[in-house]
Amino acid sequence: xxxxxxxxxxxxxxxxxxxxxxxxxxxAALPKMAKAANSEDLAGAFxxxxxxxxxxxxxxxxxxxxxEETPRGKNCxxxxxxxxxxxxxxxxxxxxxxxxxxxxxxxxxxEHYEISRYGTLRAWAQELELDExxxxxxETLEEEKETDSKLTELAEEVVNQEAEAV
Amino acid sequence: xxxxxxxxxxxxxxxxxxxxxxxxxxxAALPKMAKAANSEDLAGAFxxxxxxxxxxxxxxxxxxxxxEETPRGKNCxxxxxxxxxxxxxxxxxxxxxxxxxxxxxxxxxxEHYEISRYGTLRAWAQELELDExxxxxxETLEEEKETDSKLTELAEEVVNQEAEAV
Lengths: 166, 166
Hints:
Two copies of one chain form a homodimer.
Chain A: H1 8-36, H2 40-66, H3 77-92, H4 99-127, H5 131-164
Helix pairs in contact in A: 1-2, 1-3, 1-4, 2-5, 3-4, 4-5
């Protein structure tokens, strides 16, 4: 018997697993980024975002519950690649005044990945009429956008000047 | 003799190589996405973006020239991962009405990766007082943002409805 073509609800479930894996990877990476940062403000921003990310993981677990699925991650090569690039920067720019500029760049790549994925999942949830899931995804989407804006400010105000100061 | 710590100009050069590699990968992926898309509007959007991407590659080559470096890419695992996820969607959702929704999601992940990288490079170029590079990077950044907005419209207007139509 030929398999039924996959539908939007499956795409939504796959996307959710991808993002669940990504958030957990990010949760593991943030303390390393906070430890590496030269600027206290930047370290503080990473620490604050770690707390938020714990909340994001819980919200995704609520969305799994809404669609009656067990929370489970699925290997997401995109976020693995983005985080690996960040770790490479930590290694290669250790002791460099440009380290913080590199860390902000890496963190913004992470934020934009999440912004695109949460935006997509929210649109699919809307189409699937999963209203509670739409609210949960929207809440996290807004926090990711705020984090991205904060990183832009930090980059402009502090980090790039430090990188040039030597 | 200990090596000098790396500086912002090196970070900029590394970022440029990363993005040059990414744009070329995207250029190779776009025709496959256009061919796979069910919606003519979506296929058209991918084709139009392919033309823009050729321009983006040329602009990056101009930036290499400004910093007196040879245009050369550097393996960027992040974009490889993002594009692999898109190709997986093409394979798994072939013949599914949800395919286009998946393609838009994959394309928006690409756009957001580029938005973050161009934003970062533009900020660094500004700090390094590379005014001409700032303009070139800004121009592409705006086109990537426009493409992302167009994809959001396409997703809302056409794609998700098709996905639900079966």
